Amino acid sequence: MCSWTLLHSCGLNAWQVEGLPLSTTSNEACKLYDATLTQYVTWRNDQTLGGLEGCVSRMLDADPNFVMGHVIGTGLEVIGTGSSILRNQQLASAVKRTVELAQTQDITPREKLHASAIEQFSKGCIPKACDLWEEILLEHPTDLLALKFAHDGYFYLGYQVQMRDSVARVLPHWKPHMPLYSYLKGLYSFGLLETRFYDQAEKVAKEGLALTPGDAWSVHSVAHVHEMRAEVDKGLKFMESTEKDWNGCDMLACHNYWHWALYFIEKGEYEAALEIYDEQIARRFVSSGAMLDIVDACSLLYRLELEGVSVKERWRELLPITQPHTEDHVLLFNDLHFLMTSLGVEEQGLTQRLLESLRKQAEDPGEHHQLQLAWDLGLAMCQALVEYRQGNYSQVVELLRPIRYRFSQIGGSDAQRDVFSQLLIHAAMRSERKRHRMLARCLLVERDAVRPNSPLTDRLIQRANAMCV
């Protein structure tokens, strides 16, 4: 079995034995591919190896024509959604180079499929990319790169069932002695919780943590379970007791701190949430520039504003990080969070630039999945954010109510998308139309049924009742 560990990385022969041959003559390139994959799966940049960036660079130095080296290196940048091939010529060239190498070399069908999947994803054809990764997994269920890329792709699409079932299909082919086996527990747990199997999700995640306490994704999955059940005190205790295990996972720690802050917002302890923002989230998104960290920062500030907390200066600190991405339009989910920032600092020109460029690209979306959703979903959600900022609460309700069951299509998790459900509730409560205020009470009844004993819901119910008197 291929080792898939940083200390004993897989060389050329080990990958061959595993049934996942790599088309290169460089043993060093194979080992660095292994190290890169391991860091991606474990959410850690190992600085003794130079992190992901250093490993990719050294891997391609070892073999500049290594197709799977280009697949994982370029793929990680594309999957990160921090740049578009339409606006980043260097990334576009890297994708082109990957495809050309795959077409001109004698490589395996599996490797060709990998290169095609990266090309499709880079063009916005995320469903097609996921289909290609699934085709790989049919014959190669232990291809962890295909599994993880598909998992991320489904997450961006909001394909919750597929995210769960993709892992379920390959689990029987994995055995406990296989390196990184425990990390499949976290992947599977996340799919379970996103399809509302909370008990099973918690059980599977804790099985993973029993094997690998430092698995930040399993921690993240348990945090989600407590969030969706409104088990605030349990969530706070869990995050505090496990912090030492996951705060070194630099690619996910910021997100786990975001979950921690959500518990405080749920309790109405806003200063505690802001403390986490200032001490953990703000410094991390500045240093990483990662999309997950950036959207978490936007989301947290927006939720606090919905609760009536003033965070304007923090929006100004965030603006230089989000502004360069204004016209990327890789994901609608990202666009909505960038828009929160431009609205937060009242940069009307930047807001219009984002909306106009999104409209323009959506006029001819081609096969770009997200742009195909822009006209009847993404732009309506964007406009709702604008209208709310302008105090046009009834218009927000009219925009969001017809599409609220489609929010999942922008991707992300139930917990992340909840900010838009909260937006609809707040707008309905503030609307001058009586039927909208009645709607707010109905939405809160729904929320209370799904997530009983939520302090945040209780506060909103009290406010809605007072407004309807």
Automatic annotation (TrEMBL):
<feature type="signal peptide">
    <location>
        <begin position="1"/>
        <end position="19"/>
    </location>
</feature>
<protein>
    <recommendedName>
        <fullName>Tetratricopeptide repeat protein 38</fullName>
    </recommendedName>
</protein>
<comment type="similarity">
    <text>Belongs to the TTC38 family.</text>
</comment>
<keyword id="KW-0732">Signal</keyword>
<dbReference type="InterPro" id="IPR033891">
    <property type="entry name" value="TTC38"/>
</dbReference>
<keyword id="KW-0802">TPR repeat</keyword>
<keyword id="KW-0677">Repeat</keyword>
<dbReference type="InterPro" id="IPR011990">
    <property type="entry name" value="TPR-like_helical_dom_sf"/>
</dbReference>
